[in-house]
Amino acid sequence: MPKKRKGYKRIMLKISGEVLGDHGQGIDSKALNKIAKEIVNLNKHGIEVVIVNGGGNIWRYRDTKEAGIERTTSDYMGMMATIMNGVALQSAIEKMGVFCRVATSLDLPQIAEPYIRRRALRHLEKKRIVICAGGTGNPYFTTDTAAALRAVELGCDIILKATKVDGIYTADPEKDKKAKKYTSISYDEAIEKNLKVMDQTAFSLCRESNMKILVFNMHKKDAILKAAQGEKVGTLVS
User: Fold this and answer.
1) Least crowded by CB within 10 Å, which of 13, 49, 78, 230?
2) What superfamily would CATH give domain 10-237?
3) Residue 138: which residues within 8 A CB-CB, separation 6 or more?
4) What pLDDT digit, counting tens, does each position of 169-185 carry?
């Protein structure tokens, strides 16, 4: 039997841009404030929080290929979209009385500080929430890979991958009613089966660094807090 999961001191919360709004529709204020409230709740429970958010609600290459914009430029546009989301999330969090910093891999000093590992660690020590925006700063890499990289760099205990399904399945549960959910799975098995939860680069980095990943449904009541406190939700990749 798998061991009971313990609560985590420092987590990486990976959220998609779609959490904040539908693709191409920008930021939904109701959704923004809902996720901000849940993040603030983590902070109030003494959990150190690092966030990597996507930008798919504003711009993402795979959804905009027909625009004719070449891949590198489109990826940089996507990185800027993640920064827009990050700054909006920062504003919502700070309105709730918790200090938050946006650290970006792109140089935008007017709105965010540059990502510097030691500075980000200092913010966490001061119980500030840190949002790592702008992906890795390089085209052709997803925000999943950015989340894995920052989680390793900042000494997170686990990556909490917030999704709309309650874990990893043998097949898409929305398309295959016979799909079975994994309670836990190894990195090797996730890579071998090409499970589409995180990209292969992110999985490989997590495996090399022994960084656990918990995939769970963030829309269930108190799901993020339960995941961060080590309750048995979702699917654990380790």
Assistant:
1) 230
2) Acetylglutamate kinase-like (3.40.1160.10)
3) none
4) 888 777 888 888 899 99
